[in-house]
Amino acid sequence: MQYIYNLILEDKKLRGAFVKDPDFGFYFVSEKTQDEYLLITGCSFVITDSDITPIVSSQPKNNDYIGYKITRANGFVYVYALKSNRTIPNVSSLTLDNLGFNDEFELFTGGDFLEFLANICKLPNGNYVCGTVQDYISTIEQITAKSANKEHFFRGHYYYKYSLVPSLYRKKEYFNNESYMYMDFKTHFYNELSHKKYIEILTTMQHYRMPTRLLDTTSNPLVALYMACDVPTNYRNKNYGIGEVIVMSEDIKNVKYSDSNAVTLLSCLAVLETNYKQDLYEKIIESQEKNDLTILRNSISYRRFVAEVLNELPSFDESFFTPEVLLKPRHVKVGMINERIIAQSGSFILFGLCNYLTGEHVKLDTVSKERVFIVHRKYITKQLEMLNINSGTMYPDKDHMSVAITKKYD
Question: What is the pLDDT of residue 403?
């Protein structure tokens, strides 16, 4: 398959290739040249065999591509970005898998391509690519300014294809044995945890890397950036050096606190055996479909659930209870109960019931989410170190602090 096309600019030809990726979009990237051509910032392409020619239409809406001229090593690279995936042409195109970081493509590498995108920063598909702390801060300012009246939460992870799913739901063995893990943990640390609330025990489990229905978030965007650059323990995936920060904008009325009734209802699910949780899930769905709450309230699983709620909420009034609360994930602000939560400005997304037969769960759909891809992570890590953001300050225990000090002198 022939990937290389000739870009016809004025009376000259410049070689290049199309690159297509579902997360980053569709692009034509030229080889480097020292000749500065006239850049057509808005255009369409006429494709004939192995040649493509930019044309400008009198109708701006027909200009499918945005053109960028990027300076690179005393030369220029021309990048044309397609505005809409609806108009992707039928041409030979590369993927990120074709552009491995260790494999040299004839014109550029995967690292070069990500560098081009980091220069563009905001991509036509609405996502962002940042390669410096400065660009990242500017991007966060742009995103949060669009929803200034909302609460903003940030989630950083090392691999950009991670999904917003808590550790409990990543393995069937975990969510099928949640109650046993919860009780085992509480039993081992009974003197410390016997008087704690459900959410406090879950938070402690999360602190010690136990699988829980909590997903870490933070109110500090620089903490999320650090998490997108920090290599997880025993990480073996050798894929691209691309991290991700997800910016979530949530209506303030949907944000819950650790002592709210909704948080108690969701967190006490952790102690229910899986058969009760599955039946509870099915009865909620059935009562919704038939518009009959007695289906739920007459079930043994519901009475078992209420018994757990009453342990923590003796004044629980069932007449005010809406079953949908048990299905929807919620943003939760927790108390500053340990050093790590304080250091990381920590908060959580608390997930509800799932279908324990299929593993399906209700996704967090109450928020608007923006994706920021993070590249050049070694450089960003050095910049964050200058801001005193490192493993020692993010994880303020003796083990992590000793590692941070050693790295400083390594």
Answer: 62
Q: Which pTM value belongs to this model?
A: 0.88
Both tokens of residue 398?
A: 């003796």
Nearest to 170 by CA among 366, 350, 341, 361: 361
Q: How many helices (H) and strands (E) does the chain have?
A: 15, 16
262 - beta bridge partners? none
pLDDT band (50, 70, 90) for residue 264:
very high
What per-residue confidence (pLDDT) applies to 37? Answer: 83
313 CB-contact burial (10 Å; exposed 0-12 / middle 13-18 / buried 19+): middle
Mean pLDDT of all residues in 105-129: 92
pLDDT, residue 224, reads 96
Query: Which stretches within 291-376 are classed as H helix?
Result: 294-297, 300-312, 339-343
* Distances in whole angstroms, Cα of residue 220 to Cα of each of 343, 349, 384, 389, 400: 10, 15, 13, 12, 20
Q: 338: helix, coil or strand? A: coil
Among 328, 285, 287, 284, which Cα is nearest to 305's? 284
Of 289, 286, 321, the residue nearest 303 (C-alpha): 321
pLDDT at 139 (0 to 100): 97
Residue with tokens 């609806």: 86
* Confidence (pLDDT) at 81: 95
Which residues are CB-neighbours of 351 under 8 A, at least 6 positions away? Answer: 166, 168, 169, 213, 214, 215, 266, 329, 361
Q: Contact 31/58 with Cβ under 8 angstroms?
A: no
Q: For residue 21, give the 3-state DSSP assignment.
A: strand
Pick left, alpha or beta for residue 117 (phi over 0 → left; psi -120 to 50 → alpha; otherwise beta).
alpha
